Amino acid sequence: MARAKTYVRPMQGWWRRNPYFVRYMIREGSSVFLAIYTVILLVGLYRLTQGEAAWEAWRAALTSPVSLVFH
User: Fold this and answer.
1) Which of 4, 41, 63, 67 has the fewest CB atoms within 10 Å around its CB?
2) Is 0.70 surpassed by the pTM of this model?
3) Cβ-Cβ contacts under 8 Å for 48 (sequence gap 6 or more)
4) How far apart are CA 66 and CA 53, in angstroms?
5) In this structure, what DSSP letter does residue 62 have?
6) Does residue 16 sit in helix, strand or coil?
7) What is the enclosing helix (H) or strand (E) of 70?
8) Could you count the other beta carbons within 10 Å of the beta carbon of residue 42?
9) Between the ranges 5-14, 37-46, 59-68, where is the mean pLDDT highest?
10) Distance between CA atoms of 56 and 47, rounded to whole angstroms?
11) Could you report how far apart the first and last alpha carbons of the chain are, in Å?
């Protein structure tokens, strides 16, 4: 007696077959950058509550090459 083989739908690259889904995935991927930027701004707000020295240190950190490329 032969066993019935179940159909397994291939999932790899499903979103690359349709231009609509490609745009959707790019848009969803951009949310990672928005989340990082939100954390940066929240840290700045927290540093602002700690006083002028902490605020200036945070602003100085924003002048680093990595921060400039991100912005």
Assistant:
1) 4
2) no
3) 54, 55, 58
4) 22
5) T
6) helix
7) helix 65-70
8) 10
9) 37-46
10) 9
11) 65
Q: What amino acid occupies position 11?
A: M
Is-contact 14 21, C-beta < 8 A?
yes
Q: Residue 60's closest CA among 24, 17, 34, 47? A: 47
- Helix residue ranges per DSSP H, 14-61: 19-49, 52-61
Measured between alpha carbons, how far is 58 from 63 in angstroms, rounded to an integer? 9
pLDDT tens-digit profile of 14-51?
Answer: 878 889 989 998 899 989 989 999 999 999 999 999 99
Amino acid at 35: A
Q: Looking up tokens 């921060």, which residue turns up? A: 67
